[in-house]
Amino acid sequence: MSSTPIGQCQPYDPRNANYPLNLWWVAGRSDELEDGKLVSRKLLGTDVLLYRKSDGSVAAMEDRCIHRGLPLSMGWLDGDKIVCRYHGFKYSHEGKLVEIPTQERCPKRGALRTFPIVERAPFLWIWMGPEGEADIEEVSDFPWLRDPNWVWAGGHLNIMANYMLLKENVLDLTHFPFVHQTTFGALDDYEAAATFVQEGSRVAFIKEFNNQPLSPIYNKDLEWGDRLVNRTDKGMSVSPAEHLFTATIVDPNAGPGERSEYLFRFQHLTTPETNTTHHYWWAASRNYGVHDDASAWIASIAQTAFAEDKEVLEAIQRRINESPAPLELPEVSAIADQGGLMARRQLQAYMERESR
Amino acid sequence: MSSTPIGQCQPYDPRNANYPLNLWWVAGRSDELEDGKLVSRKLLGTDVLLYRKSDGSVAAMEDRCIHRGLPLSMGWLDGDKIVCRYHGFKYSHEGKLVEIPTQERCPKRGALRTFPIVERAPFLWIWMGPEGEADIEEVSDFPWLRDPNWVWAGGHLNIMANYMLLKENVLDLTHFPFVHQTTFGALDDYEAAATFVQEGSRVAFIKEFNNQPLSPIYNKDLEWGDRLVNRTDKGMSVSPAEHLFTATIVDPNAGPGERSEYLFRFQHLTTPETNTTHHYWWAASRNYGVHDDASAWIASIAQTAFAEDKEVLEAIQRRINESPAPLELPEVSAIADQGGLMARRQLQAYMERESR
Amino acid sequence: MSSTPIGQCQPYDPRNANYPLNLWWVAGRSDELEDGKLVSRKLLGTDVLLYRKSDGSVAAMEDRCIHRGLPLSMGWLDGDKIVCRYHGFKYSHEGKLVEIPTQERCPKRGALRTFPIVERAPFLWIWMGPEGEADIEEVSDFPWLRDPNWVWAGGHLNIMANYMLLKENVLDLTHFPFVHQTTFGALDDYEAAATFVQEGSRVAFIKEFNNQPLSPIYNKDLEWGDRLVNRTDKGMSVSPAEHLFTATIVDPNAGPGERSEYLFRFQHLTTPETNTTHHYWWAASRNYGVHDDASAWIASIAQTAFAEDKEVLEAIQRRINESPAPLELPEVSAIADQGGLMARRQLQAYMERESR
């Protein structure tokens, strides 16, 4: 796998990997690993096997038997050990070859590469960089997704486009009126660019919607009708792996002792699958409302909208893939692209740190 | 895009473009551009957006937003302007970026490449060579297709084979008894090679069928039965883009004042899509007969026959595509291939002129 | 086609051909060539046309017209001659161009490459190495498949994996309990590795199952129930093209004058199609039993089991195909792999002989 530092220009060349290895990336969701289930997932170009051990923790290792190369995910579990379907080679959850059925001893060098994996429900985070450089303190967490005062819904899309196309998409919501005419487009006024700020290595946009009625997606539960309220949206590319959006809604007319602040958050979690495809996990969460039908409506709107993004991003990537090398597509940026361009520099910094 | 001059040998190497840019090529048909319809078509390796303006003329430009690369054909028209579906970038029909919804001013360098396009109904001709070298005087026209004394039918095939395979196909009709046994094969005596002539840059074949009964496709309207008449076929590769076939039928027994000459014409119009695929527009026209059922029968026969050619040409191309580079397929030519070989030289001359 | 000598390591690089040309390979089965039938089959990377002549022998030649490259298998036979569907070029069964319909004489250099082909029913063997080096004495034969005292069933699979993956598969039957749990897995005790021996250029394994009840696949006809008998399995890679397995069953309790020996044989015949795919013909034969339902049951078990192998081998090859060049997949071998590793050296010897 070759990594190329990127400049201002498009980081989407299908021939180059444009993702840092030294980062915790989402590998999947907690609820995927039902009892005994083997999940095979290509992450950062490598096939990874995921399963839950009897102690509840998760194992992650190369999904390729070191013997003759069969994906281990085609085999089965024996307790916490994984058995290859071809000749029954058995590995511990630490990737160590512990049994060859036809002989007494195993060669010592028989070991699969394993990956540090940390569960921060509802997500699983994996480290695929050099062994020993993983720092568990750096794993992200969204504790509110486990907080009983919050409700959330989420989904997973496998998008046939470089993950940076999605990163740029969620940093510039002025595409709402065009891509999401019938979903998010109806929600909000993103007709003007947001304000972009750099917060350390993080890239954020901020936009205020004050003294306005609340958009339907936020209003569904509150049922405030046309009441004029204040809302501040903040979207942040925390790292190449993670984007967090928070809408802070304030009711200026809340009486004393009445609740006045409400939060709505989108998590956008992207993990490269190959140079031209990625996994996208999203979660829409809020700390108000318990209406089941509101939740279902929000999930359905979000699902439809993200499918609209998928269609757009994949059309862009198809054209990129057909372009001759070296990739030098003409590109004109708008003011609203500031955040996306900052995210490219954010990525570049991650990549440079890695090649030191 | 690389262009390689060709020699006597096969010009079909999938790795090389074997088409001149400095030529008017058919881009589509007039009747494709219904009100507001956006047509995206890959021509000479480039994705082109086509639409009809309010004044009735046609716009042709790169089908790729200069902002972030979405095909503009996924957007919509606003009057004569095209709006990108991603962030609403708006372009004039001259490809000039005229509006970014989120800001007041547009960068001046925001321009799409446009292409001269000329309508000669029922066909649209495009120039994709260097700007300023397009000469509208050189655009072909088939005025008889607009003449009320003529009737015609036509179709479009997207053939997964290099366009030169079709050029060679229509220059040597001795394939009729083999490829078109149940369609054109029953029509005509192409058991011997035609006579080939060079007329300036044009390549033609001529074949006379004198004192013979008329083949069914010509006879359908005339209903002459076995009457012995004279027919002269002339097929001409006018350019790499255009092949014109004319059958001139003469009734030697026409009395004084009676009509004695009848014309039947096939237009074969080929435009490369990629190095290994092309667009093929055909039209079958005649200046006699107004029987609707004859027209339908002729169209149906032609459609079936061209599908037979498609099957043959695509089988040849598949084998070419699987051949290792450099392409040096053995090839033995027959006398009947003279025209096809002359067409390769015709193409070579076009290519050499371009690389000067 | 490039040939690379292989070492101990994996010979499956999709970028290299790992098969000798100087060898008789199976091209098909006798019963495929019904009257007038044209079979097109890619063998060792070359498209070959096969058909049966009027004298009952078989013709094999390049499946590509020397004129303009159409597969001749799209044409038809005229007696023993093959007619191209495009322009009617006609070739003798010796590949000589004998007629161009539109001219009197044929160019002398118009000849297709033909291939020596020998029928040893039920198989056809082809030689694709240098002309003149084919030695008919070296063609394999399985005369028992034509012996009325034997019964057999067989099949053909087109496996999307390098043929050496199958060679190694049939040399190490310890995969039975894992891949074939519900088919062969239930049959036999292949829980320990066999003994491997080199017999000249041949590689074999031997394993004895003495004083044991007979496995169902062997017992189906004999109906011996739990009677304790002796069985010796011997599997042999005769060449890269051929693997022969024989189970010799001996009934120690047979009375004087009673039959005591029974043979069951599997033929595993592999022919590379491309660098990453192969043809696999198998035949299961035995010299006892005439129960039709036993034969059907054996054929059905074998078919299901070989489909299980196909699934495994194709999963391995997909991962190989996705691996970056140069191919250096980690590999740990077991004692049971001895035979497979010997087969790689067997192949290497064939390849080296060829490059002298």
From TrEMBL, chains A, B, C:
Keywords: 2Fe-2S, Iron, Iron-sulfur, Metal-binding, Methyltransferase, Monooxygenase, Oxidoreductase, Transferase. InterPro entries: Cholesterol_7-desaturase, Rieske_2Fe-2S, Rieske_2Fe-2S_sf, VanA_C_cat. GO terms for biological process: methylation. PROSITE patterns: RIESKE. Residues 25-126 form the Rieske domain. Gene3D superfamilies: Naphthalene 1,2-dioxygenase Alpha Subunit, Chain A, domain 1, Rieske [2Fe-2S] iron-sulphur domain. GO terms for molecular function: 2 iron, 2 sulfur cluster binding; metal ion binding; methyltransferase activity; monooxygenase activity. SUPFAM superfamilies: Bet v1-like (SSF55961), ISP domain (SSF50022). This is Vanillate O-demethylase monooxygenase subunit. It comes from Pusillimonas noertemannii. The lineage of its organism: Bacteria, Pseudomonadati, Pseudomonadota, Betaproteobacteria, Burkholderiales.
